[in-house]
């Protein structure tokens, strides 16, 4: 197999859960409310050193961490989503927000027909804005759906892991994404991240002009600060944060955490 073929196999190997139907049946029998977890990524440029599938790999890494800690039904990822702001770079592929919304709603409806009442969307791409609308609409209809992680979950993970770049600055292919891939898929991180730092904190016209108006390399952040140790701690923190989401979806109430009650 060629070098590029090996990288492709590594990138997509292991993304599909290995459950059998009996595994799902057994897990569901023990839970008053079954919760499914759907990773949603993207296929877009992440500079010259991270793969196009980075957001999908990140979403899957978070989802796997959740599945290791909670009795959830782990689904295979949605690998192409709304990456229109990256269209100026080769390799980027997008679907419309309408299509992504429809895919999520169809998956949720199919799960409900099979007895899985709650769905968590684990989003790995900031441009998938429509996922928030899908969750709002579903919740208003009385359906159980959540979007994870929230910005507050990322901020807690950033602080706990020692990530020094702020969430504003760490916008794309920066310290967080590089750290998670160095931990989960180091073979896919190519040389060059050590000297690729670039910041552009004022991005107020991003939706109109796209990413190319703010970066030539496709990078906005400080990937040179990334490490596998930070990536491991980021995922651990996010798994801990998920506990409140799981409680809300299964019992309708939020447990208290170290910062006090959540409502």
> SSE order, as H and E?
HHEHEHEHEHHHH
How many helices? The count is 9
Q: First CA to last CA: what distance?
A: 53 Å
Shape: globular
Strand content: 5-15%
Number of strands: 4
Question: What is the radius of gyration computed over CA atoms, rounded to a whole number of angstroms?
Answer: 18 Å
Overall mean pLDDT? 92
Helicity, in percent?
Answer: 40-55%
Alpha-beta classification = alpha/beta
Walk across the major sheet and give the strand order: 2-1-3-4
Most strands sheet: 4 strands, parallel
Which consecutive residue ranges, at least 5 long each, have pLDDT under 50?
1-12, 257-263
Describe the overall structure.
This protein is of the alpha/beta class and 263 residues long. It is 43% helix and 7% strand. A four-stranded parallel β-sheet has the order 2-1-3-4, sandwiched between helices. α5 links the parallel β3 and β4. α3 crosses α9.
Topology record:
Elements: H1 3-12, H2 21-29, E1 35-40, H3 54-69, E2 73-74, H4 97-113, E3 118-123, H5 130-140, E4 144-148, H6 151-161, H7 175-184, H8 206-209, H9 228-251
Parallel strand pairs: 1-2, 1-3, 3-4
């Amino acid at each position: 197999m060629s070098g590029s073929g090996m990288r492709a196999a590594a990138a997509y190997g292991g993304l599909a859960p290995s459950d059998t139907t009996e595994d799902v049946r057994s897990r569901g029998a023990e839970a008053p409310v079954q919760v499914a977890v759907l990773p949603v990524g993207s296929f877009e440029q992440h500079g010259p050193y991270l793969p196009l599938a980075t957001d999908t790999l990140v979403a899957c890494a978070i989802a796997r961490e959740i599945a290791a800690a909670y009795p959830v039904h782990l689904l295979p990822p949605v690998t192409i989503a709304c990456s229109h702001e990256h269209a100026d770079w080769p390799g980027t592929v997008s679907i419309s927000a309408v299509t992504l919304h429809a895919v999520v709603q169809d998956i949720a409806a199919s799960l409900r027909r099979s007895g899985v009442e709650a769905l968590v969307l684990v989003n790995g791409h900031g441009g998938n804005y429509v996922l928030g609308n899908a969750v709002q609409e579903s919740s208003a209809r009385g359906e159980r759906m959540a979007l994870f992680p929230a910005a507050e979950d990322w901020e807690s993970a950033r602080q706990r892991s020692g990530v020094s770049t702020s969430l504003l600055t760490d916008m794309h292919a920066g310290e967080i994404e590089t750290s998670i891939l160095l931990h989960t898929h180091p073979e896919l991180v190519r040389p060059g991240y050590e000297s690729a730092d670039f910041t552009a904190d004022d991005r107020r016209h991003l939706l109109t002009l796209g990413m190319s108006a703010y970066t030539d390399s496709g990078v906005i952040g400080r990937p040179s600060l990334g490490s596998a140790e930070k990536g491991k701690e980021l995922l651990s923190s996010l798994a801990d944060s998920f506990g409140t989401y799981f409680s809300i979806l299964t019992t309708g109430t939020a447990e208290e955490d170290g910062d006090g009650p959540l409502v």
